[in-house]
Amino acid sequence: MATIGYLTTTLFDFGAIKSLPTEMEALGIRRPLLVTDTGVQNAGIADKVLNHLDLNTVVTFANTPPNPTEEAVREGATAYRDGGCDGVIALGGGSPIDLAKGVALAVTHEGPLEHYAAIHGGVGRITAKVAPVIAIPTTAGTGSEVGRGALLNLTNGSKLALISPHLFPKRAICDPELTLGLPPLLTAATGIDALTHCIETYLSPLVNPPAEAIALDGARRVWRFIERAVKDGADREARWEMMMAALEGGLTFQKGLGAVHSLSHAAGALRAPTLHHGMLNGVLLPHVLRFNDGYVGEKYAVLLDLFSLDKDADLAGAVEGLLKRLNLPVTLGEMGFRQEHIAGTVTRAMADHSNATTPRRPSAEDFETLLRAAL
């Protein structure tokens, strides 16, 4: 028997940001902490959001690092308490949204964040006391605005997932207007993140046909529109489609991910170099597709047809071709990952929660082989 559940309330379209005051009122948020990062601020996107609010009621925390950390969560929690806040607005890509979830947990639950990590039995320790979060994505990739999890780099050097139905943002406001003009490289990297979510979820062996249907629709949208969005940042149709694909990626990965994410989570825990999650997923996806070949039934054939590729085409090779056309890295070495990073990455990957839902369970030796092939 399969138990299937979906998910939260999403407001989606150009101009959706205008609904923010109404949604805050519905949730009883009168003094929000706005969690964002300096890139969003410098791009003027934060001002577009703040224009809809009473500035005297908003406390802003913009110190989100590229990969959110436990230290930043604690800083944000201090700002929340000192500001007398009663809710969180997350504005940005996956990092600010995940950090905002961490803050919403930290201000309502005692103890170290590791206590609430999924692999340490933390799912049941997270209660409905979590502060309300409104998530507003400014990229089209992560899907965290409709996700039940947050990935954080902890002070002990691990990168762990906090997962709970209580971590779903109470509202997701998806306004493609906020992504117009997103730089080509970031458009490509976040778009590949969405594609990986959809493909890897579809390949997961768990039984969840609704999730698989969403995954296929999201993957199709990315494949059709990512190159247009990268080529022309003002292409409104492409931006709408990419944001919908990212949303669908977040909706679908509740089914579970796999070895791509086990490795990208593990590599993303490195404090130096700082590795972009979407780029990591893109580099690793073709190698994991080859690793899983023969373990997914007819699903590769379905994807080839979905992407209008020849039935005898190499799916992994097609993904690599897309990466090259998008000017994304195709090796870990291009990103600064080195041989000396392999051992620690393998150890962290073996402990990652995504291993539970992969079609072919990798051993430590398999993970090392995958990393060396991608290097």
Tell me about this structure:
There is one protein chain. By secondary structure, the chain is an alpha/beta fold. It folds into two domains: 9-178, Rossmann fold, CATH 3.40.50.1970; 182-374, Dehydroquinate synthase-like, alpha domain (Up-down Bundle). It is 45% helix and 10% strand. The strands form two sheets. Strands 1-8-5-4-2-3 form a six-stranded parallel β-sheet, with helices on both faces. Strands 6-7 form a two-stranded antiparallel sheet. Strand 4 (87-92), helix 5 and strand 5 form a beta-alpha-beta unit. The model has no long low-confidence stretch (mean pLDDT 94).
Structure summarized in a few sentences:
This protein has 375 residues and is of the alpha/beta class.
Write the layout of secondary structure elements.
Layout: E1 9-12, H1 20-27, E2 32-35, H2 38-42, H3 45-50, E3 59-61, H4 70-82, E4 87-92, H5 94-106, E5 133-137, E6 149-153, E7 159-163, E8 171-174, H6 184-203, H7 209-231, H8 236-252, H9 259-268, H10 277-292, H11 299-306, H12 315-325, H13 342-350, H14 364-374
Parallel strand pairs: 1-8, 2-3, 2-4, 4-5, 5-8
Antiparallel strand pairs: 6-7
Helix pairs in contact: 4-5, 6-7, 6-8, 6-10, 7-8, 9-10, 9-13, 10-12, 10-14, 13-14
The name CATH uses for the topology of the largest domain is Dehydroquinate synthase-like, alpha domain
Instruction: Please give the number of β-strands.
Output: 8
**Unreliable segments (pLDDT under 50, ≥5 consecutive)?**
none
How many domain regions? 2
- The number of helical elements comes to 14
CATH superfamily heading of the largest domain? Dehydroquinate synthase-like - alpha domain
SSE order, as H and E?
A: EHEHHEHEHEEEEHHHHHHHHH
Name the structural class. alpha/beta
| Rg over C-alpha atoms, rounded to the nearest angstrom | 19 Å
Question: Strand order, biggest sheet?
Answer: 1-8-5-4-2-3
Characterize the biggest β-sheet. Answer: 6 strands, parallel
* Helix percent band: 40-55%
End-to-end separation in angstroms reads 41 Å
Large-scale geometry: globular
Query: Proportion of β residues?
Result: 5-15%
**What's the CATH architecture name of the largest domain?**
Up-down Bundle
CATH domain class of the largest domain: Mainly Alpha
Mean pLDDT: 94
